[in-house]
Design brief:
With 170 residues, this protein is an all-alpha fold. It contains six helices and no strands. Helix 1 packs parallel to helix 6 and helix 3 packs antiparallel against helix 5. The protein is rod-shaped, with a radius of gyration of 26 Å. 24% of the residues are buried.
């Protein structure tokens, strides 16, 4: 009887220790997952920023040749190709993004607005589209892309997530 009680008394701290250790492991896994998500969001923000910058460069660099009516200008083609590459990089980066409502909403808005780019490119700086409307068309998509930066650091309170975000952006 005494050995049974002794075993029970000795087992209680072991069981409590195992339970507390399990909580620590779960907490560590949660922290790791948050950090991984934060890093992915930071990479998405970087890709969206690059895409937005390419859109504005396309708008600005192609303005002069297009206003002169030179629709087949090599510079226009080159800057549009760069924009397309940045768009592809952005869309590759959002694959497997964290399932967060803000990210999903922002992505759906960009996907809805992107088809306008083809129409804008066809009519950019022509008589059929006022130059101001051309600029506004580019800015509409660019603005939606820049809103991804609002997702940085949201929903996390651990330093590891912030660190991985900063590292991914840098």
């Amino acid at each position: 009887r005494v050995p049974t009680r002794l075993n029970a008394i000795l087992l209680i701290p072991v069981i409590v220790g195992l339970i507390m250790g399990g909580f620590q492991v779960k907490n560590s896994i949660d922290t790791w997952q948050e950090a991984r998500d934060a890093e992915k969001v930071a990479k998405i923000v970087a890709a969206s920023s690059n895409y937005a910058e390419a859109l504005l460069n396309e708008r600005d660099v192609s303005a002069e040749p297009l206003l002169k009516g030179d629709r087949n200008n090599a510079t226009v083609k080159k800057v549009r190709d760069t924009t397309d590459q940045m768009a592809d990089a952005f869309h590759k980066e959002v694959v497997g993004m964290p399932a967060k409502q803000g990210l999903e909403r922002r992505l759906s808005l960009v996907v809805k607005a992107e088809p306008q780019l083809d129409q804008i490119r066809k009519a950019a700086f022509t008589k059929s589209m006022d130059p101001v409307k051309t600029e506004e068309g580019y800015v509409t998509v660019e603005h939606l892309l820049m809103e991804f930066s609002n997702e940085l650091g949201l929903g996390t309170g651990n330093i590891t997530s912030y660190g991985r975000s900063v590292y991914a952006i840098a």
